[in-house]
């Protein structure tokens, strides 16, 4: 399908069961997002724990999501790496399996210069005919893609957008200005989605949309319809829940929340680990305050009944 980079796109979690990718749960999540009206699914990003997936698992997750979507929703596969050849291979696989685009995080750990960043993304773009979204998140990668570098990259074929997670609205405005809006601006921070829309962004690649996609969609639609007061109310409602999604390293809280709500079996891979008890309590309080307790209470009641039966 034609890739339209706007609205609520979800940074999809990778569900695990007994240490392996839970493909059945993954397929259910795809169906759920299609029903919710999510505009695109982004597997194998940070929230999808790409850093702890093997090459085979990474390819398989993209395969499963593309096959489950059956052209009903856009798929933007995470294909970034700190190894340019590896990023090219992953992006080629995404193209071959039928993904509609790819998300490329800036190379991490090796801390390339701005020239190195330019050459890296240019090499991927010249190797694969697929729309590319560049992902700028210095808190994870230790290097910021400067607006001037984006201005150079805006002239490279197939580079179409940036997922901006710098938290710096001035930088985002300069990216739009220097690229003459040739690059689409997407928010990479749920808390900043509304401000990013206000400066010219078109949507978000969202973590909190793993649990409340319809509400994120409602906020964006309200803004786009000129109902700014309604959009602000949605923003204010979502903000405490969004904050709870980052009480510890993403995706630990969101996967824990999805477990509490009966959406997936919770669990992350080492070196990530379970939430601390204090963070778990904060997360539960946020879910209660948001009104998501009915699902959690129902699930826990079933578990309690099953446990009591086993004891007898």
Write the layout of secondary structure elements.
Elements: E1 7-11, E2 16-17, E3 20-21, H1 23-36, E4 40-42, H2 55-69, E5 74-78, H3 84-97, E6 101-105, H4 114-127, E7 132-136, H5 138-141, H6 147-153, E8 159-164, H7 169-178, E9 184-187, H8 193-198, E10 203-206, H9 213-224, H10 228-244, H11 252-260, H12 277-290, H13 293-311
Helix pairs in contact: 1-2, 2-3, 3-4, 4-6, 6-7, 9-10, 10-12, 11-12
Helix content: 40-55%
Question: How far is the first residue's CA from the last residue's CA?
Answer: 54 Å
The CATH architecture can be named as Alpha-Beta Barrel
How many domains? The number is 1
Per CATH, the class reads Alpha Beta
User: Any idea of the CATH topology?
Assistant: TIM Barrel
What's the CATH H-level superfamily name? Aldolase class I
Strand content: 5-15%
**Total beta strands:** 10
Largest sheet: 8 strands, parallel, barrel
Average residue-wise pLDDT: 93
Structural class: alpha/beta
- What's the helix-strand series? EEEHEHEHEHEHHEHEHEHHHHH
Q: Walk across the major sheet and give the strand order.
A: 1-4-5-6-7-8-9-10
Q: Roughly how many Å is the radius of gyration?
A: 19 Å
């Amino acid at each position: 399908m034609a890739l339209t980079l706007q609205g609520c796109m979800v940074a999809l979690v990778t569900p695990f069961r007994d240490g392996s990718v839970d493909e059945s749960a993954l397929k259910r999540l795809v169906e759920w997002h299609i029903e919710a009206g999510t505009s695109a699914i982004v597997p194998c990003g940070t929230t999808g724990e790409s850093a702890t997936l093997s090459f085979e698992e990474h390819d398989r997750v993209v395969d499963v999501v593309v096959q489950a979507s059956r052209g009903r929703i856009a798929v933007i596969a995470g294909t970034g790496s700190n190894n340019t050849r590896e990023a090219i291979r992953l992006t080629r696989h995404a193209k071959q399996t039928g993904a509609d685009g790819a998300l490329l995080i800036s190379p991490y750990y090796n801390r390339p210069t701005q020239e190195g960043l330019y050459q890296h993304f240019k090499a991927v773009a010249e190797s694969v005919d697929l729309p590319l979204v560049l992902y700028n998140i210095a808190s994870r990668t230790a290097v910021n893609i400067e607006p001037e570098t984006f201005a150079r990259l805006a002239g490279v074929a197939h580079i179409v957008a940036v997922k901006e997670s710098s938290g710096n609205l001035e930088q985002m405005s300069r990216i739009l200005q220097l690229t003459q809006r040739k690059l689409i601006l997407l928010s990479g921070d749920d808390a900043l989605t509304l401000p990013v829309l206000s400066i010219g962004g078109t949507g978000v690649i969202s973590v909190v949309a793993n649990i409340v996609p319809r509400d994120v969609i409602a906020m964006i639609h309200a803004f786009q319809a000129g109902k700014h007061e309604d959009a602000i109310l949605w923003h204010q409602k979502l903000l405490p829940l969004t904050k709870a999604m980052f009480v510890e390293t993403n995706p630990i809280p969101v996967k824990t929340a999805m477990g509490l709500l009966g959406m997936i079996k919770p669990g992350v891979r080492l070196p990530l680990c379970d939430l601390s008890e204090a963070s778990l309590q904060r997360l539960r309080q946020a879910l209660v305050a948001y009104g998501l307790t009915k699902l959690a209470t129902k699930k826990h009641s079933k578990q309690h009944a099953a446990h009591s039966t086993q004891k007898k």
